[in-house]
Amino acid sequence: MRDRMLTADVPLGPFEGTGITVYSAKGRNARLHVRSDCGLLRTANVTTAEVPLNAEVVDRFCSGCADWGPSVRPTSGLGVFMGALGGAGLLYQLGAYAEPDEDAYWTQEEVRAAAGLLRSERDAGDEGDEGDGRWEARREADALRERVLSHWRHAAGSLHRAQTAIAHFPWLTEWARPKVLAKENYLQTVRAQAALFVDPAGLVVAAAAAALDTPPLPVDDPAFAVLGDRGRIFARLSALWRGWQYSAAQGSERPASRAIRRYDLVEDIRSRKKGREEALEGAARLIRSWEEEARAAAATTDATPAEWVTARLPERPEEPSRRGVSGVLDDLDEWTLGVLLTWTVTADWSRGALTLKVPTLVADRLLASSGPLACERGTGTAPAEAVPGERPGFVRPGVFDDTPVFDRRPVTRAHLRALRTFSYAADQLYIVFSSGGGAEVLPLDAIERRVERGWHGVIVAGASDLPESVIGPWLKDVGLSPEAEEGTHPGHDGAGEDDRFGADAGLAAGARAAVRWAYDERAKEHTLRTLAMARGVSDLRSLDTGRPGALPVAVWQGLLTPGPLDLRPFRLPGAGRRRGGSGIPLGVLGPVQIYATNADPAFEGKGHSPFCRHTGERGLAHTDDLLSVSDLLARDDWDWCSKCGGYAARRLTDTQLSYYRAAHRLHHIAGRLGDERTHHAPVAPDALIKQLDELAARGPDGHEYGDWEGSRRWRAIVDDLRDRAERRRLDTAP
């Protein structure tokens, strides 16, 4: 299907001449391929070349590679441009909904006949004769109505998507103009067909029904005595009113159909119970009175379209990274769709701005609505002019990562919208730079919020832009590392016997934990790239955007320990044998970050780890509390969850993990020397002295963040234990 492929006539704008990598068989006129594994590249002797992107190169692309264009990083400027063109992007949309589909089409006569049948049924005010074939004819007419309305919504969505892409890349405007004009003409044709199924007078009555105040309800009417006491009668009649008003405000059902709602009033009353029929008759009278009141209210106002209203459709970027995103009109109710079909005068689909000329009642309802359609009073037939900065600025080299950082351009809201709309890899972490904040790592949502508040900065790189020379070997190393290397839980015993103790609290174990959640090699690489970015963030809570799943759970697993740390070696001795510590200085472990849902014992509720099942294993939230290991030892009245331990720690660096293990070994030796129980294995003083000499040699002096007081305390503990071991050796000497 050539109309959805990149062809030589497509203007490349500022991206023309950009260097790309292509693959081909040997031969001067061989087809070019953008992927070395392209299925149409059937040769063992593949030639690789760097060529400038231009019309001549594009014309030589194979049919498969032309569908998506050059293979480039998805968050680069060229990658965003290719994402806007390829797949179901602009090239496809320009060919879609531009003319009738011969496989699923209807004639104008069929539409008129179906609309006339439904209108006659509505005017008749009854269900019609079910036995003379009218039911089947009405069913077919309803089906055609749904098809036409759906086709109009999809055609409008396709035009909106095409014009949005062109607005971001304006050098495509003249080239795409004939195709856009064809789409606009076809949309107008379909809209005229869909409008035949809409009753303008019914829309005005529906607006009047929506504006009605709750009427006095006859709770003392004997007809409703079967419903119970006055309170129960009032509740039932109120529910009947709300149901009727909601249905009448939509304007899609006939009055005869809405009258059936009277049965909702007696749904739990037996059919033979005395008083049931009287209640049904009373409900029918109420519904008829409400219908008459709505028609009377509509009749008292002028139904001539005289009020100008500018309506803005909800912004809905179709993010390739998320599935199931609905179309631009899909969130609108049936009444609103009918209004757009009937009274739209002009439309700018690139901005989603429609100018309507509607009756007064309809205008009042549109302006008062809090729904997805934002409306304001207009002044004429033309759509409201774009406010400064609203018309998207175009994406060009230098906005993202395809130029040197020195030449990078400040990012705008329009640039970020194009990135989110057209790049499947947009939802990730980015290194950004600004004069106010310096270099930072932020999620895309946070960058968008900052830009809307006037932030002036550039995107330096995304997670997908990190050097392959670093990520590739790391991915290979993580994939080859056996899971058995991960030690026991950091809160378990075994520090003296297991050299792998505490390993699952370290950075290496975090990377392995993260990739275990990934389902394929591409997901593993993306996870590690995001993890590498996130490790540079000072406060991990800043990575929470408030949108569930913005940061994969796998990344949280790589950032935080699976459980609490065992801090017994660092507690002061003398609190009993089981709870007593060794008073080892915290050293480099003091500033290790601790995250919990609730770290205030005075606040109701226990503290939970971000991975606790009580929190839905959601990862960190910006509302969580941040402590340090030093804070944990400063008090002992924490109210932690007994299932998860109450918190998760930031994974330990190699230096911190080494010191954590050494402290536990020292604590373990102190426990062995202080254990006088005869049924335990005898202590081997020589082995303990050897271990103490090793610990003394690798004390905290060289540790980052080590301090002199901590080093002195470490040596004092080692020396004291060595003296005790020497005395034990002398006592046990033959």
TrEMBL record:
Residues 298-307 have a biased composition (Low complexity). Residues 313-322, 486-499 have a biased composition (Basic and acidic residues). Residues 298-325, 480-499 are annotated as: Disordered. This is Uncharacterized protein. It comes from Streptomyces nogalater.
